[in-house]
């Protein structure tokens, strides 16, 4: 450089100094405030934790402190940051290691700092056969980067596969969808993704996959890099430096506060990812960013050389390519830096420093006073507008020193009323006695709930926090009291507790509360060596009331019954409703078992009185089971089980009585349970048998019909009576399966007897109310089965009970019509013993009446049973019905029935129920006799 050139540069520098001095003297010591400079940061992907540091720098004000207003734009493709930064649309961008390719292609991009010290890019391979093998992708469809966008980091995976001996030509590469579901659905076998992102989705659905990282083969690329353009550095070096420093501050904050930034992303930028997904990403980024080991933004030229060599091995760069100027260095010529200019300006300003010092100090004092006033205004505004009540209280006297409007509003009084009183004046008397003390030495800093009493006597629940406030030495101690109105919350809690522990209909304790109280009473009885009795009460005939008068009237009856039961016990005893028509009573503190007898009988007597339900009267009784602690059991569940067993014993003994638990009841219950369990396998185990009892035409003496009766041949117990196992089948629901089996057996035999004995032979099968009343299931499968066998519906007759007609809703009526339409006849079994009326015979399509054996047993010429039987027969014939008399055991009974006009007879006079083979032999014998008579 020549002396003239040096002199010229010196003159220019001195001129700049003189201009700065003149400017400083004109403007004075106070520099004008500058508006924030607007800059744009272009991301390479959509918003997620991958860019957390930039969001943090905005939120925490780091960019603002640097004089910058930063706009952050999402990216739609990997090439967008480079494209927008070079064009000037964005001043800064986020790019991958592919920026090196752009630089060496002549694009003026400059890396300002590296965020990801290791690339998150990995290859995810579906684990199809449980073996981890990268070579399994050969010949398979793979998604590795975009086929149209070169800046999607496919290069490092391509280098990785090449190094592992798997050239891209050996795979079927398809364009990337960036949807990991394609890997799950088997559309591809390998998928390039971020270790921070896609595994979260795959793990959440339990998809098996293997991860292959290029780092395992020594290919260690940088991940995200912050970059700008050469022109931005040349024109605005200070802005570049400020943006970089603020960004790194943001990254330091984000890596230390991941949960806060995750919430920020969802609140301000995107709800595309769940919070847990963002936090997963944050955890996975720690080993990639290495914020503890490596200074954020640090970039190593040797690592870039490694990346360049890798690109060279792929033929994407020439060997030993130079990338000078690619990495940002903060050192600019001294005369172009702000520190230099500020130093020059500072030196000149020292000339006038003394003159301006006092003016500056005065301004600072005014500014400080204004700041204090503004702070006081802000505090007062917050105090006045706070959503909770706040009061400052003198700890020594309890007097209010200041309150905000919300405090007076919650207290239900004016400001003057509250401020003139003491802080306990408005508390409920029960709460004032235990109120938190305000003395500095005790009771300070506490939280509690209490009640405030309004002038009209109403009560408000408050959540109250009392905190000691530091005061100057010698001054009275003070406390800050903060209150919130939680009345509605308390009401909700009380309602929830009520609903959880009390029956909504009767307001009695429910099952849960009953269990809790029984536990308490057992503990008390154990301590005091007393007895506790549990009464299990079930209302008799309640279902009939519910079915005939409706559920509303049934509820009225239950409420009245609960009040009657409660009136029979002491105030200290517990009456509970377990559900339906079941009640329980806990009689505690008994010194003998006889006390429970008196109360149980009193309950039975009071429940027998009629219940007035609107215009109707209803009569019910009760069956009560009683068990005693500690005589019968010591555990709650055992006591309840025993009481339930005793109640069923009372029902079985005729109802309207009470029964104590005995060990025999437990044995019977165990037998029922075991027998029920055995019954579950009876059909599949081929243990059931169908017996047939003949139904004889009384005038001719011929067998025209038979009733199918089920028997159980138990492998150990032998033949089990239907009276024993049919109730178990009904209570367990097995009756449906058994009924279907009986129908099919009856159909099989009636087809044989129609072909061999008489074309109109008919077999009747019994239908339990549980079978007949099944919702949503008719007799279509019966009709289909009969059609398969070539039988008409008239081959089968269905026997139902009178009780079934009591609940003859539309479902029962429809099924009766369905049977009639397909030719299947219906018989009303045990007629005369139930609750049916003559209107049922007129209303429903009944074909046969079966006179109950209780009438037949005592038939005599002038007996009332004979008169009733004759009346039934005459009535049936008038209605076009046939009559079958059950229980015919003597020739005299047969003669009387025949003389009365009865159509059919069934009983031991003709034959007991017989196995199918024996019944078939009887029919053959009858046929042989008839043939002999004709000859």
From TrEMBL:
Segments forming domain GGDEF: 530-663
Domain PAC residue range list: 446-498
Residue stretches making up the PAS domain: 375-431
Pfam family, one: GGDEF
Domain EAL: start-end pairs: 672-927
InterPro entries listed in its UniProt record: Biofilm_reg_signaling, EAL_dom, EAL_sf, GGDEF_dom, Nucleotide_cyclase, PAC, PAS, PAS-assoc_C
CDD domains linked: EAL, GGDEF, PAS
NCBIfam families: GGDEF (TIGR00254), sensory_box (TIGR00229)
Protein name, per record: EAL domain-containing protein
Species the sequence originates in: Massilia soli
């Amino acid at each position: 450089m020549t002396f003239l050139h040096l002199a010229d540069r010196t003159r220019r520098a001195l001129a700049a100094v003189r201009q700065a001095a003149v400017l400083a003297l004109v403007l004075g010591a106070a520099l004008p405030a500058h508006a924030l400079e607007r800059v744009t940061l272009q991301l390479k992907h959509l918003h997620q934790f991958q860019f957390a540091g930039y969001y943090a720098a905005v939120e925490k004000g780091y960019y603002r402190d640097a004089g910058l207003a930063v706009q952050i734009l999402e990216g739609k493709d990997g090439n967008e940051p480079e494209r927008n930064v070079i064009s000037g649309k964005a001043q800064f961008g986020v790019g991958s290691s592919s920026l090196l390719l752009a630089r060496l292609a002549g694009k003026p991009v400059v890396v300002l700092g590296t965020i990801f010290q290791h690339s998150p890019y990995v290859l995810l391979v579906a684990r199809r056969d449980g073996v981890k093998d990268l070579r399994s992708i050969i010949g398979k469809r793979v998604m590795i980067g975009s086929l149209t966008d070169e800046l999607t980091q496919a290069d490092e995976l391509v280098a990785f596969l090449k190094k592992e001996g798997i050239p891209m030509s050996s795979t079927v590469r398809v364009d990337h969808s960036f949807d990991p579901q394609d890997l799950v659905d088997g559309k591809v076998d390998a998928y390039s993704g971020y270790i921070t992102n896609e595994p979260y989705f795959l793990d959440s659905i339990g998809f098996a996959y293997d991860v292959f990282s290029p780092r395992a083969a020594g290919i260690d690329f940088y991940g995200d890099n912050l970059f700008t353009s050469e022109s931005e550095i040349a024109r605005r070096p200070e802005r570049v430096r400020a943006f970089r420093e603020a960004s790194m501050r943001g990254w330091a904050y984000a890596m230390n506060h991941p949960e806060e930034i995750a919430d920020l992303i969802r609140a301000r930028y995107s709800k595309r990812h769940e919070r847990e997904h963002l936090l997963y990403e944050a955890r996975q980024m720690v080993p990639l960013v290495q914020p503890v080991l490596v200074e954020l933004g640090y970039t190593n030229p040797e690592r870039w050389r490694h990346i360049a060599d890798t690109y060279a091995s792929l033929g994407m760069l020439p060997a030993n390519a130079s990338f000078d100027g690619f990495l940002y260095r903060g050192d600019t010529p001294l005369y172009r830096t702000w520190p230099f200019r500020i130093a020059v300006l500072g030196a000149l300003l020292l000339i006038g420093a003394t003159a301006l010092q006092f003016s500056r100090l005065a301004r600072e004092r005014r500014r400080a006073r204004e700041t204090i006033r503004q702070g006081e205004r802000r505090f007062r505004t917050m105090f006045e507008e706070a959503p909770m009540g706040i009061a400052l209280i003198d700890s020594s006297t309890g007097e209010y020193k200041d309150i905000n409007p919300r405090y007076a509003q919650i207290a239900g009084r004016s400001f003057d009323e509250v401020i003139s009183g003491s802080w306990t004046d408005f508390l409920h008397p029960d709460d004032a006695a235990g109120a938190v003390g305000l003395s500095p030495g005790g009771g300070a800093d506490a939280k509690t709930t209490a009640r405030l009493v309004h002038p009209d006597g109403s009560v408000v629940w408050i959540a109250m926090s009392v905190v000691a406030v530091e005061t100057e030495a010698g001054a009275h101690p003070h406390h800050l009291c903060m209150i919130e109105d939680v009345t509605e919350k308390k009401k909700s809690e009380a309602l929830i507790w009520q609903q959880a522990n009390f029956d909504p209909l009767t307001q009695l304790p429910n099952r849960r509360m009953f269990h809790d109280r029984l536990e308490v009473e057992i503990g008390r009885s154990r301590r005091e060596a007393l007895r506790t009795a549990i009464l299990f009460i079930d209302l008799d005939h309640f279902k009939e009331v519910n079915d005939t008068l409706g559920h509303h009237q049934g509820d009225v009856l239950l409420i009245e019954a609960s009040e009657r039961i409660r009136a029979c016990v002491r105030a200290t005893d517990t009456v509970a409703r377990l559900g339906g028509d079941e009640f329980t009573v806990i009689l505690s503190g008994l010194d003998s078992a006889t006390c429970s007898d008196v109360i149980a009988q009193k309950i039975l007597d009071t429940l027998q009185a009629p219940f007035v339900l609107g215009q109707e009267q209803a009569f019910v009784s009760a069956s009560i089971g009683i068990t005693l602690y500690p005589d019968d059991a010591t555990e709650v569940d055992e006591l309840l089980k025993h009481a339930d067993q005793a109640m069923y014993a009372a029902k079985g003994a005729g109802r309207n009585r009470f029964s104590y638990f005995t060990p025999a009841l437990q044995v019977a219950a165990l037998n029922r349970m075991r027998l029920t369990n055995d019954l579950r396998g009876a059909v599949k185990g081929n243990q059931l048998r169908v017996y047939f009892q003949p139904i004889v035409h009384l005038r001719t003496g011929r067998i025209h019909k038979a009733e199918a009766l089920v028997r159980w041949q138990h492998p150990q117990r032998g033949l089990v009576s239907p009276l024993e196992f049919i109730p178990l089948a009904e209570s367990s629901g097995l009756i449906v399966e058994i009924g279907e089996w009986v129908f099919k057996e009856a159909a099989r035999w009636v087809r044989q007897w129609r072909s061999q004995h008489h074309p109109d032979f008919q077999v009747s099968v019994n239908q339990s109310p549980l079978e007949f009343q099944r919702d949503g299931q008719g007799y279509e499968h019966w009709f289909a089965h009969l059609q398969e066998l070539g039988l008409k519906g008239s081959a089968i007759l269905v026997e139902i009970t009178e009780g079934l007609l009591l609940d003859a809703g539309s479902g029962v009526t429809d099924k009766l019509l369905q049977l009639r339409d397909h030719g299947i006849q219906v018989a009303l079994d045990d007629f005369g013993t139930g609750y049916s009326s003559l209107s049922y015979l007129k209303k429903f399509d009944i074909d046969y009446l079966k006179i109950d054996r209780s009438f037949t047993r005592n038939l005599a010429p002038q007996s009332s049973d004979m008169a009733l039987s004759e009346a039934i027969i005459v009535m049936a014939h008038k209605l076009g019905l046939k009559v079958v008399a059950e229980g015919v055991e003597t020739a005299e009974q047969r003669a009387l029935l025949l003389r009365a006009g009865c159509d059919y007879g069934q009983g031991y006079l003709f034959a007991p129920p017989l196995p199918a083979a024996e019944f078939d032999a009887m029919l053959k014998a009858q046929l042989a006799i008839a043939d002999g008579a004709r000859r």
